[in-house]
Amino acid sequence: MHDLLDDYAHANALRDVSPRLKLSVGLASILLSVSSPTPAAPLFVALSLSLATVLLAKIPARIYLQLLLLPFSFAGLSAAVVAFMHGSGDVLLSLPILGYSLSIREDGGLLALLLIARTLGGMCSLFFLSLTTPMIEIFAIFKSLHMPQSVIELSMMIYRYIFVFLDQAAMIHNAQVMRLGDAGVRNRLQSFAMLCAVLFLRSWEQGERLIVAMDARCYDGKLELMEQTGRAGRGEVAAAATYLACALAVSALTWSAGGLRLL
Amino acid sequence: MTAILQCRALSYRYGDGTPALENVSLDLEEGRKVALVGPNGAGKSTLMLMFNGILRPSQGQVLFRGEALGYDASSLRDIRRAVGMVFQNSDDQLFAPSVYQDVAFGPANLGYAAEKVKRYAGFALQYVGLAGYERRPPHHLSGGEKKRVAIAGILAMEPEVMILDEPTSNLDPASSEEIMDMLDELNCGGKTMIISTHDVDLAYRWADDVVLMMDGRVAKRGSGPEVFAEADLIRQARLKPPLVVEIYRQLAARDLVDGSRPPAGVLELCGLLEKRWSGPADDKRMGRICILSVDEGEPGRAEMNAALQDAAADCIGAMGSSAKILAEQCGINLDFTYGVIDKCILKALAGRDCLILTSGGMVQHAQKRIGEYCRDLGREISVQRLSAPGQTTKSLK
User: Fold this and answer.
1) Selection from A98-107, B179-188, B378-387 with the highest mean pLDDT
2) Of the N and C termini of chain B, which has fewer Cβ atoms inside 10 Å?
3) Domain extents in chain A
4) What strand order describes the sheet that includes B354-358?
5) Which residue among A160, A214, A217 sits closest to B157, beta carbon to beta carbon?
């Protein structure tokens, strides 16, 4: 269970940096990545935030790469489809299959590259945020941004019980595997269906117990929030600002250059 | 003694008509340690849930300080503040995403000002020895830590009565002893404690009053030795006699000890044996017990070490969270962290010198316990109260 993002969020070298600053950097990077018309800016974001996550926050590189592999493989697949199906321009690559020729044209290739770059940039920003900032701090920021109280409280409880149910799901799964519930596809499907059904019932019961627990402590519509931790130091703000300025500059430069042709 | 919680002809039926409690009448006195024992389904948990108005009796009444519980919102609020309940499964109780938020939940909902909420929550966390854990999420805590947080969440509301459903289930032996020690400490501070348990040894040793429940009724109520003397009843209730009682019975049957009164614990059993076998003229050297109160001043590492040198004890025990925290800060190697008084008496009987680090009301508690023991068995153990090490420096300033 130690490979949960949450565990790293609570124990990393950037844990005590102001969560507001981390959130700003993360969000700005995501926006920059997905809005950029060229792959340069998202790739810059991905590279620099990956370095920050691994070198500054001291998240083990192996774990980080494993995390990235999942979204990257998705992006790779969709990019392949886009590359072959899309666009006009010069043919870059042509594969003869059963008499037809399947080819990547310039536009399609660019679009595929952009897709991969954007996904990578966005995911790196998201991982930077989720690996360095515990949820409770983000809830506190939500509160100061005047998010509706009920939304915050609901998300806090959902967050808390994710882990309770994760444990339960793991236990149910073990109980099934112990009695060969994973032998064969048919069994596996059936076991999975049972797991879902039991988990649903348990969450229902847990909900009822939650009401009792809250009532027993005089619930009156108030869920305390953590105070926010440390203000951002000048150096940290300067570093974040420099990084964002660089990313913006890369984006703006490549944009004004009319979209760099395949770098 | 005044009764703090009373049940008058209490009955409760589940929605489908199955009876859970039938005609239970029970008076619980203030400042006592009460253990509810009985088989699964005897109605222990149901009874506990009535004490702070979570369940409403089908018939009969629950009285708190002589007044019948009301079931309107404001009466429920009052009773739930005064009677706190710690659930068996900590995950049911800890619903907030961080330790601090969970502990602050009660005070915040009682409408305290932000500053007061913070103070109360901080105090409660300090008391259970988890200061510094504020930002941890509950799923990063061990079972014992979760239980402590659950207790802190109740403590922060300053209850007069604390109810704990199976406080030691799923805990390792040391954690459960530490939790029980903490309950002792709270009881010393005047809180009435009610627990339910399947652990007969625990109930026997810890409780002033044992309430044996069976099929939704109170089958027997009395001190541990009284209740567990009823061998037939204990068997019917699917319990077993505590180990001490079992050993005592076998010894008494072979006429190795006086069989008139079962001992309250290991310490008393040893006393009985010694009384019979070594005679009153025993002039074996007895150890000395020093009690060091740590709550005055804030002794530093050097001062504590000097105090330890003075005491020249063979074994050191700490009672209460503040003493344990201090010992950890000062790098003192503790021999006992639970059941400290009894263990120190046993060591003293074996000729060793002991030092007990403790605080507040626990000092008197320790002195009283040692005094009672000496009186009962006609032995003399010298007890010495040491002045707190921080005091001297404080007066110099």
Assistant:
1) B179-188
2) C
3) 2-133+233-256, 142-216
4) B315-318, B354-358, B288-293, B382-386
5) A217
